[in-house]
Design brief:
By secondary structure, the protein is an alpha/beta fold. The chain has six helices and five strands. InterPro entries: CheY-like_superfamily.
Length: 177
């Protein structure tokens, strides 16, 4: 197999734009998730293998008026994203089949603008410094207590929904003088 110089230059250009070249010193400045902060959320896919956790999260999000999809593993998550194109991916950090960090990094290769939130029972560790490379927008630490997770998610979603509604412009029809 022969590789031309043009294809190498094209690869280098792509790598530079993704901040994987040596010339890039600030990894956070080019993170794809920064652009998604003002995006409105109407649908969510929840990657959760435990029925009781999924039921609690789905109930909360449905109450907030969102459309909910479920994936029990990373393979189902990919299918849900392709078929339903949800606005937010909510991942459990304790998935048994694949690391949520790896799943998030894979999602970023396909879609760099979709927000990805991870919820975890454990506090942040040294591995969490890789968040910007894995493409995580938010990490919710809930200490293993389901009520804490639901409350924390409710607070974040309420803020996100209210921020999105403030970004909608209300145009008034001019009144006659």
């Amino acid at each position: 197999m022969f590789i031309s110089n043009n294809s190498l230059r094209e690869f280098e250009g792509n790598a530079r734009s993704l901040s994987f070249s040596r010339q890039s010193r600030n990894w956070h400045s080019t993170c794809p998730q920064k652009a998604s902060s003002n995006r409105s959320i109407n649908s969510v896919v929840i990657a959760e293998f435990r029925d009781e956790v999924y039921a609690s999260l789905a109930s909360l999000l449905k109450h907030l008026g969102l459309v909910i999809y479920r994936a029990e593993n990373a393979t189902e998550l990919a299918g849900q994203i392709v078929s339903n194109s949800p606005d937010l991916v909510l991942l459990s950090a304790t998935q048994p089949d694949e690391s949520s960090w790896l799943t998030s990094a894979k999602l970023r290769l396909v879609d760099s603008s979709r927000p990805v939130w991870i919820y975890t029972p454990k506090p942040a560790s040294a591995l969490d410094q890789w968040l910007s490379m894995a493409g995580i927008d938010e990490v919710i630490v809930y200490g293993g207590v389901l009520d804490t997770l639901v409350d924390s998610l409710h607070d974040r979603m309420s803020r996100k929904i209210s921020a999105a509604s403030r970004n909608v412009y209300n145009f008034r029809r001019p009144t006659a003088i």
